[in-house]
């Protein structure tokens, strides 16, 4: 199983980046690889229509450490953990998203990595242009 860390540096305070990323209402604005339509809250989970079908997303509790991990329950019932960190960087903040191959072919893994790259670039643009 391969893992890959995909990151983007954002010219904004780490706290501002964290607040944007941790807000479920922003998910559809930047995470096209996960959420394509309105987010519906269901207890601690979020129900979203994704490219994989309807999934449930559960974020780590809000914290002051920049941890925005989230579990995604796929239509098959499988749960995929996505580690995400927001850390301080000399130019603002760095968003680090860990992708794991987990039974995907090499081609599917590369496609997932490219989707995360696009999502993080979208996120960077949204935050930097909002400041």
Structure explained in plain terms:
The protein has 131 residues and is of the alpha+beta class. It has one domain: START domain (Alpha-D-Glucose-1,6-Bisphosphate, Chain A, domain 4). 29% of the residues lie in helices and 36% in strands. The chain has a five-stranded antiparallel beta sheet, with no helix packed on it. Strands 1-8-7 form a three-stranded antiparallel beta sheet, covered by helices on one side. Strand 5 and strand 6 form a beta hairpin. The longest helix is centred in the last third of the chain and has 25 residues. The radius of gyration is 14 Å and the shape is globular.
Give a short synopsis of this structure:
This protein has helices at residues 14-22, 27-30, 106-130; strands at residues 3-10, 40-42, 45-50, 53-59, 70-73, 79-82, 84-89, 92-100.
Mean of residue pLDDT? 90
Computed over alpha carbons, the radius of gyration is 14 Å
What is the name of the CATH architecture?
A: 2-Layer Sandwich
The best one-word shape is globular
Biggest beta sheet summary: 5 strands, antiparallel
Beta strand %: 35-45%
The number of distinct β-strands equals 8
List keywords for this structure.
three-stranded antiparallel sheet, 131 residues, alpha+beta, 29% helix, 8 strands
Topology at a glance:
Layout: E1 3-10, H1 14-22, H2 27-30, E2 40-42, E3 45-50, E4 53-59, E5 70-73, E6 79-82, E7 84-89, E8 92-100, H3 106-130
Antiparallel strand pairs: 1-8, 2-3, 3-4, 4-5, 5-6, 7-8
